[in-house]
Amino acid sequence: MPNRVAVAVVHGAGVQGPDFAAEVSRELTHQFADELGIDPAEAARELIIEPVHWAPVLQEAQSRLWRKVSAHQDLDSVELRKFTLDFAGDAIAYQPTPQGREVYDSVHAVFAGSLRSLARTAGTKAPLCVIAHSLGTIISSNYLYDLSQRRRRGLVSRAVRDVKKNTPLENGDTLTLFYTMGSPIAVWSLRFEDFGLPIRVPAERLGTHHPGLEGEWVNFYDPDDVVGYPLRPLNAAYARSVSQDRAVNVGGVLTSWNPLSHGGYWADADVIKPIARSLASVWSHINA
Fold first, then answer.
1. Could you state, in order of their start, the residue ranges of all structural domains in the chain?
2. What is the rounded CA–CA span in Å between residue 127 and residue 281?
3. pLDDT value at residue 73
4. Which has the closest alpha carbon to 163: 142, 147, 139?
5. pTM of the entire predicted model
């Protein structure tokens, strides 16, 4: 049986259904099949894609808050307010506070569950690719950083430890590819001295499990997207870890030229095709 590649797809802020990754999964699988010259059905057996659907952690609280504030009928710009609540509310609620980190830990437990599923299906040592959008890039970066520092007491919560097993994939040790899209990590980095430290891509222990396998971190951003920023200029550590800040033009006729481009990364060929090409290269390496 060929060795498989594991892919975790992480959504951003806002209302997200459980099928949020269906379209990008289909497109990635088809492009992966084209790169390898195999049937899409075979490609689906070799490229194991798992969504990280963390939105339900916050959805009930946001809905309850909206019911309370919308009871006042004098609010203008209702749809814009709902968007702001969904987007900013997720980011604010996710951030740990001195009083607690329940949301942070609950979101990370969802991430742990997705990696647990990938380990069962793709294999405990399968190369890991993480594809994340918007706030999902911060969640992914935080989760993978905490895993890399897991020997420090308190970083990996009990909620996560109750879900994950001690496998290379679930420990983040097989992280090979990291793709961030429309990422606000640059803004988030204001919380740290000299803009903080990035995760290491590929993971430091990748060579133990897959000698000679190379990885990359490509940060896709649309210059019209006011949420997404380049990352390499933050500091020398980011310049080393991020392989490339790649400017792309995403979105349709009505969105590609304005901030609404933020939602266009998932369906853009200039984003999906190079990711599929790298996934095919990883698969070829581990099956050589």
1. 5-216+262-286
2. 11
3. 65
4. 147
5. 0.93
